[in-house]
Design goal:
Layout: H1 5-13, E1 22-25, H2 28-36, E2 43-47, E3 58-59, E4 70-73, H3 76-86, E5 90-92, E6 101-102, E7 106-110, E8 114-125, E9 130-136, H4 143-149, E10 154-159, H5 167-176, H6 181-200, E11 203-214, E12 219-221, E13 224-228, H7 237-240, H8 250-257, E14 261-264, E15 269-273, H9 276-288, E16 295-298, H10 305-316, E17 323-330, H11 335-348, E18 355-361, H12 364-372, E19 378-380, H13 384-398
Parallel strand pairs: 15-17, 17-18, 18-19
Antiparallel strand pairs: 1-7, 2-4, 2-7, 3-5, 5-6, 8-9, 8-11, 9-10, 11-12, 11-13, 14-16
Helix pairs in contact: 2-3, 5-6, 10-11, 11-12
Binding site for substrate: 274, 331-333
Domain ATP-grasp: 9-255
GO cellular component, one term: succinate-CoA ligase complex
């Protein structure tokens, strides 16, 4: 789960981490009121969307030379003008794709006199089962270019969660950022605080870009992104309450309500599978046969009829879907339950695209009988290869 910048900073402040004062705003009036609470004379108006690259982004409804989604304002009137520009308009960045994201919230913060910009992030390194702290002296909007063109300017410090954050980790961060004296000590303290926030909140990713050194000799978190392990959210109801469903794909939101693992993709063959590995194999074999999957959808091992029906409806709600491949291996999941759900959903939504079903495992014959006797144009397949060939052929024929 992702959250907005202002929410992430609210969480970080609870760990004693320094951030510029700021106020979220859902409308122009709130943006102006927030600016009036700040000392000025420099303000920063930031679009709040779940994507990076906001500073270099462009609004599709504004002229090409209009400023991006992070703007410096030198008066309250300028804050008002920027808020009017941004709210309700679509911001397109390198991370949003061509469709962009509509800006529904802003964050108005105090301006900062910046001396230097740095980069610091943490992610879970699954290969080593450690937490990787990634640091660079080259913070700012072009960090992706730094990683691509000068990777030697990025250093990674790994931390074993069994022992936790140690003083030498903090010294390594300060050394990597080329900081000395009081700033080095501040970096050591900050990196420890960030590690505590990361582990306490069950984060998957915590990115500070930029981490700035002010002209007064302070280290401040100027911008941040946080994402969380969804499986651990039950431990953090305060974090879960920060979820903004308007920033997520509506089909993915609906899937989460039924405990379905669903990710929208760009293809035209809808997939419903039980088990992540089988789902990946199914998507691969669809592509091998000349088509592209429209989604990743894992109904899990313990799905019931209602869950399968919901999954089927979600697939069919995607207008890009021109055919559906159901691939089920019944272990804990019984094939007759899957078949019941397929028939129920297909009748309810008036199935209008080709449907190929491959069933194998527990109660497979009962499942096949249910499909055969449903009165629906469901095509059975003997194995995964046969299923992929049949659905691709059906879609091409229908086109």
């Amino acid at each position: 789960m992702n959250i907005h910048e202002y929410q992430a900073k609210e969480l970080l402040s609870k760990f004693g981490i320094g951030i510029p004062t700021g106020y979220p705003a859902n409308n122009v009036e709130e943006a102006v009121e927030g600016a009036k609470k700040l000392p000025g004379p420099l303000y920063v108006v930031k679009a709040q969307i779940h994507a990076g690259g906001r500073g270099k982004g462009k609004f599709s409804e504004l002229p090409a030379d209009a400023k991006g989604g992070v703007r410096l304002a030198k008066s309250v009137d300028a804050v008002k003008s920027d808020a009017q520009d941004m709210l309700g308009n679509t911001l397109v960045t390198i991370q949003t794709g061509d469709d962009g994201k509509q800006v529904n919230r802003l964050y108005v913060t105090d301006g900062v006199d910046i001396a230097e910009e740095y980069y610091l992030s943490m992610v879970v390194d699954r290969e080593t089962s450690r937490i990787a702290m990634i640091v660079s002296t080259e913070g700012g909007m072009d960090i992706e270019d730094v990683a691509h063109n000068t990777p030697d300017k990025i250093e990674t410090i790994t931390i074993d969660p069994a022992t936790g954050f140690m003083p030498h980790h903090g010294r390594a961060v300060a050394f990597a950022l080329k900081l000395e004296g009081a700033l080095a000590k501040a970096a050591q303290k900050l990196s420890k605080q960030l590690y505590e926030a990361f582990t306490t909140l069950d984060c998957e990713m915590l990115e500070i870009n930029p981490l700035v050194e002010t002209k007064d000799g302070e280290l401040l978190v100027l911008d941040t992104k946080m994402s969380f392990d969804s499986n651990a959210l039950y431990r953090h109801p305060d974090v879960e309450a920060m979820r903004d469903e308007t920033e997520e794909d509506p089909m993915e939101v609906e899937a989460s309500k039924h405990d379905l693992a669903y990710i929208k993709l760009d293809g035209n063959i809808g997939c419903m599978v039980n088990g992540a590995g089988l789902a990946m194999a199914t998507m691969d074999i669809i592509k091998l046969n000349g088509a592209f999957p429209a989604n990743f959808l894992d109904v899990g091992g313990g799905a019931n009829r209602e869950k399968v029906t919901a999954a089927f409806k979600i697939i069919l709600s995607d207008p890009a879907v021109e055919g559906i491949l159901v691939n089920i291996f019944g272990g804990i999941m019984k094939c007759d339950i899957i078949a019941d759900g397929i028939v129920s959903a297909a009748k309810e939504v008036n199935l209008s695209v080709p449907l190929v079903v491959r069933l194998e495992g527990t109660n497979v014959q009962q499942g096949k009988d249910i499909l055969a006797n449903s009165g629906l144009p469901i095509i059975s397949a003997d194995d995964l290869g046969d299923a992929a060939r049949k659905i691709v052929a059906q879609v091409k024929e229908a086109a």
